[in-house]
Amino acid sequence: TEKSFGLYCASFPALPLSIPVSILLLQVIKVYNEDNTSRAVEVPSDITARDICQLFILKNHCIDDHSWTLFEHLSHLGIERIIEDHESVMEVLSGWAMDTDSRLYFRKNFAKYEFFRKPLDFFPDHMVSISSETNGIVDHSQLIETFLNSSTCPEIHGHLHAKEQSRKSWKKFYFVLRRSGLYFSNKGTSKEPRHLQFIADFSDSDIYTDLSAKKLHGAPTDYGFCVKSTKGSSARDLKLLCADDEQARTCWITAMRLLKYGMQLYQNFIQPHQKQKPSLMRSISENALVAMDFSGQKTRVIENPSEVLSVAVEEGLSWRRKSCHRLSGHGSPSTSQSSVPNIALHLAQPWFHGKLSRDEAQRLISQQGLTDGLFLLRDSQSNPKTFVLSLCHMQKIKHFQILPVDDEGELVYSLDDDHTRFTDLIQLVEFYQLNRGVLPCKLKHHCARITL
């Protein structure tokens, strides 16, 4: 068969019968990247999603910032989901039908555990309330703890569009998510038991993002998601839902993940941090490290924080000018110093994605998690010789044009109508990583692409 994984017995010397035969079983799996390049690796049959991520982090010399994620992608259904770090990958593969294009994808997702850090961004007040027994409104400072507590659970509620079974039409209902499962009301917004119709629980179901809600499933918006039985593999097994905006969809999916996995999800979140040991260099007191100015005839300690930043920027600029002077020294003596550096310096940066279109930029940022500060830079498709900063804030993606400005024969860049100027795009990115300026938030994470 052409299924992307195989099973075989490795050749080892005879072992005592007391040792389980399962340790001899290895499997070959194929893992894809965003650009659809793939790599086949041989792994033990009990491997978890986190193990595979660690394997590719080591093979590709990636920085392990705990955002690398394994995804299950079902092309024939147009859906995908995060495979949680603790999940058995072979169990996921065993649910795939032989004649479908199902894939594993390895990529970053900065929003995977962001709800543990910023629950208010994921659970709007109007969608969350305490269960009827406590007769009150949920305290957001303890929201996640309430989700993880087996005896209590916040109730998520709001309107969703649902696709009617065996029909092409969608209908809007009021939905309620409780620990016992997902329900919709057949009478307005009533939560009375006699009006609530059971839709699904999550003991034997998974939650997927709908990647083609409008195009493939005829949804009224692009904010689709679905619940799929772990035993089903066809479109008939999907319970398709659709929210009115990204914030609502993220709230529903996050709540369902928390209800399904509970404390295990929190253990997945803290496990990498528990394994980290402080570096020996960190034993040096932070007070022993001071900022110094070496630009004058005598060195001096810099005490003003603002001056520290300006000196650091100036030193970086000085280094770039020297580097560019060395580069331009190999060319024509008549070439101006500013004509070479500003064009080429950004090309090798991981945050620069060249001729990426607006739609591709939005898709890449969405794939890597709609978290504040996630960004990339790209060439402008509509205005040649200019650039665009694509930035995520409040689960929305915004685009800011970066214009080249002629400053007395030297080319500089600005994204705030020439109020703040930068000699190159690297300096611009570094500035907005430290300062919000005219942007809605600081630049925090850059979208990264790797070749497997």
Explain this structure.
There is one protein chain. The chain is of the alpha+beta class. The protein has 4 domains: 5-108, Ubiquitin-like (UB roll), CATH 3.10.20.90; 114-273, PH-domain like (Roll); 290-328, no CATH class; 346-452, 2-Layer Sandwich (SHC Adaptor Protein). It has helices spanning 49-59, 89-94, 114-117, 119-122, 143-148, 213-217, 246-261, 263-275, 305-328, 341-344, 358-367, 425-434, and strands spanning 5-9, 25-32, 38-44, 68-74, 79-83, 102-108, 128-129, 155-163, 170-178, 181-185, 196-200, 205-210, 224-229, 238-242, 292-293, 300-301, 374-379, 387-393, 396-407, 410-414, 445-446. Strands 1, 2, 3, 4, 5, 6, 7, 8, 9, 10, 11, 12, 13 and 14 form a 14-stranded mixed beta sheet that branches. A 5-stranded mixed beta sheet has the order 20-19-18-17-21. A two-stranded antiparallel ribbon has the order 15-16. It is globular, with a radius of gyration of 26 Å. Mean pLDDT is 81; it is low at 1-19, 277-290 and 321-341. Residues 351-447 form the SH2 domain.
